[in-house]
């Protein structure tokens, strides 16, 4: 299953970034596919991007709300919100584990041999603060002389934008390099910090700072794709705890807001068919072969 997940992640990287004519054109893709919402965090300004970023688009929607209202135009951005809501209701954070390019990038970095460490649970609340403040509140309230807000998350925090758009555009367009000042240096430093953190900790940006993960996490308990926990089969062996890349106790909170639905707990760790995938009410059992009764009783004892 883990091999399949890597193939699916790779496929989504190329589906979200399928414009490979940018080295010749030197411009961003602006074709008809650009109206499609990328399920994962994928920068709109990436030269290869064929989709739009849900968080970036939500900020663009909110930063212009005050100006639109003053002009008597009542735009609610139902398409952007509808796309994000639909993805959340259907998939929840399954997207984080299977379709986010920056999530895959962090996982690959974590494979680099090094001492590993955990992430304090209190830092999990950081992504909700980022969603509330940088994505929603500040673009709505901090305005310039033209009553326009600013995309705070994209401008000051998003390391995916620096990796996918900032650095490649400076390589493709040398004329832009003189304009890359202290802000760009800060963003590159932030990206370097996330890279180093990802080597020693599992998916740190996803777990502490990603507003898209925070948004999808709100739907985890109610999404059509969920984890199903069979308490009668669980032996409390703790194998699922060790396998979880985001360090949750899946037998206690099988649909935690932190769960990225990578399915390592059900397909690699649990030997007793206690965890399975539920899709729209239909249970898909993917656990390894169920041990015989004597083995289960021995484990329980």
Describe the structure.
This protein is mainly alpha-helical. It folds into 2 domains: 2-217, no CATH class; 226-300, no CATH class. Helix content is 50%, strand content 4%. It has 16 helices and 3 strands. It has helices at 2-16, 22-25, 54-63, 65-70, 78-91, 94-98, 101-110, 126-141, 152-156, 159-172, 182-200, 204-208, 211-217, 239-243, 264-269, 293-300; strands spanning 225-229, 275-279, 282-284. Strands 1-2-3 form a 3-stranded antiparallel sheet. A hairpin with a 2-residue loop joins strand 2 and strand 3. Helix 3 packs antiparallel against helix 5. It starts with a helix and ends with a helix. Residues 293-301 have low confidence and may be disordered.
H/E series = HHHHHHHHHHHHHEHHEEH
Tally of individual helices? 16
Strand content: under 5%
Record the strand order, biggest sheet.
Answer: 1-2-3
Please give the domain count: 2
Instruction: Report the radius of gyration as a whole number of Å.
Output: 21 Å
Mean model confidence by pLDDT: 88
The coarse overall form would be globular
Question: Which regions contain 5 or more consecutive residues with pLDDT less than 50?
Answer: 293-301
The N- and C-terminal alpha carbons lie at a distance of 30 Å
Largest sheet: 3 strands, antiparallel
Helix content: 40-55%
Total number of beta strands = 3
Helix-strand layout with pairing:
Blueprint: H1 2-16, H2 22-25, H3 54-63, H4 65-70, H5 78-91, H6 94-98, H7 101-110, H8 126-141, H9 152-156, H10 159-172, H11 182-200, H12 204-208, H13 211-217, E1 225-229, H14 239-243, H15 264-269, E2 275-279, E3 282-284, H16 293-300
Antiparallel strand pairs: 1-2, 2-3
